[in-house]
Structures are given as structure tokens and as C-alpha cells.
Amino acid sequence: MSDGLPPIRTPRERTASLLAGALGSVIVMLFLVGGMWVLEIIDYVQDGALDQYGIVARDPEGLVGIFAAPFLHAGFPHLIANSLPLLILGFLAAIRGVGRFLGASLIIIVVSGLGVWLVAPPNTVTLGASGLVFGYFGYVVGRGLFDRRILDIVLAVVVAVMYYSIIFGILPGEEGISWQGHLFGLIGGVAAAWLLRRRREY
Fold first, then answer.
1. Options 2.60.40.4070, 3.40.50.2000, 3.10.290.10, 1.20.1540.10; CATH of 11-195
2. Whose CA, among 58, 90, 170, 198, lies 20 to 30 Å from 97?
3. Lowest mean pLDDT, pick from 2-16, 77-91, 127-141, 183-197
4. 3-state SS string for 78-100
5. What is the C-alpha to C-alpha distance for residues 140 and 25, in angstroms, rounded to an integer?
6. Tell me: the pLDDT tens digits for 161-189?
7. How confident is the model at residue 201 (pLDDT cuts 50, 70, 90)?
8. How far is the CA of 85 from the CAs of 11, 13, 29, 79, 136, in angstroms?
9. 23-32, 53-62, 142-151: which range is least confident on average?
């Protein structure tokens, strides 16, 4: 007769699960960032034709850009600046499972995109994965707070120490930088950590 408790895994099983999660995370992030590079190459060849699919603030037609903008960039320097933090933070966000990662990514994209659409100056076009970068930061730190597993707490501390300075990116500052995307991406990441947290049975 089952008491409803999850089975206890051996250290070997936990290690195998973690390694499998890490491998899946690497594959997902290489595919994601690689796809962004392919899109930017296409955009470059077509003289920026894809940039029109960004988020156009306050324009109803610009809502379509919520799901396209995170994968498009305003040139290779923009993409290069986002690629490394996206790979690192995305890897850490996905290490607990691709399913939860995809769910978290969707929440971050929607919250960040809607925030940009509502708050950015009218008719401005916003592109780039920085909302995802800030979102994965918030998700990894939030997961440590809400799930309270040892590994998640350690990852949250490491990420907070390594990337604490990006928090300043949520403040209005340099022209041409979407602080709105940063702020709402961070909010979306924390919200995703809460919504996708491990449910405890009492």
C-alpha cells in the first residue's frame, strides 16, 4: 500500500538524472541560440527585413511581435552581447527539465513582451533576447527561493553573485536600450519560478 510519498532515489540515480538534465539543457540552448544566429544571418542578407516583426509599442498589430522579437536582433553586435549570458543563464534554467524550461520561457516571453508593448514609447520597435536573459536570471534565483532544493539554492546563489550587476539594467538609462524588456523579463522569470514551483504535499 502506497503512502503517497515519492520513491527515494539512490545517489547514482540522482547523478544520472542531473547529467541527463544537463545534456538536454546544452542541446536546447545550442539549438535556441543557433536559431537566433541563423535568423540574424537571414536578416542581414535581406537588409533588415525581419526587424519589422519586433514589438511595436501600443500598436495592436505590434502584438504579434511579442513571440517573434526575442529571437530577432538589431545587428550582430546586439546578438553577440546577448549570446553568452543567454547560453549560461538558459542552461541553468533548463537543467531541471526541458518541459519546465519551455513553460518558463513562454511565461517570460509573454510577460516581457506585454510589458514592452504597454510601457515603451508609442510606435517604437523592440527586438532582442535581453528579456529572456533577465527572465532566466529571475527564474533561476526565484527557483532557489521557491523550490528550496539544495542544487537550486546553490545555482541561485551562484547566479546572483555572477550577474547581480544586470539588475541595474531594469532602470531607465542608455538610449536605445529597452529597460522595459529587462524589467518585465525579470518579473516574468520570478513569476515563472512561482507558477512552476515544486508542489509540496502535507
1. 1.20.1540.10
2. 170
3. 2-16
4. HHHHHHHHHHHHHHHHHCCCHHH
5. 14
6. 888 788 888 888 777 788 999 999 999 99
7. very low
8. 31, 30, 11, 11, 10
9. 142-151
Residue 34 burial (C-beta neighbours within 10 Å; 0-12, 13-18, 19+): exposed
Q: Which amino acid is at 109?
A: I
pLDDT of residue 19: 80
So what's the pLDDT on residue 146?
A: 92
Q: What is the pLDDT of residue 199?
A: 67
pLDDT cut 90: percent of the chain above it: 66
Q: What CA–CA distance (Å, rounded) separates 24 from 123?
A: 39
Our CA angle for 187, 189, 194, nearest 5°, is 95
Kindly list the domain boundaries of the chain, sorted by start residue. 11-195
- DSSP string across 4-63: SPPPPPPHHHHHHHHHHHHHHHHHHHHHHHHHHHHHHHHHHHTTTGGGGGSEETT-GGGG
**Which three-class secondary structure state does DSSP give residue 194?**
helix
Q: Which grid coordinates belong to 5?
A: 510519498
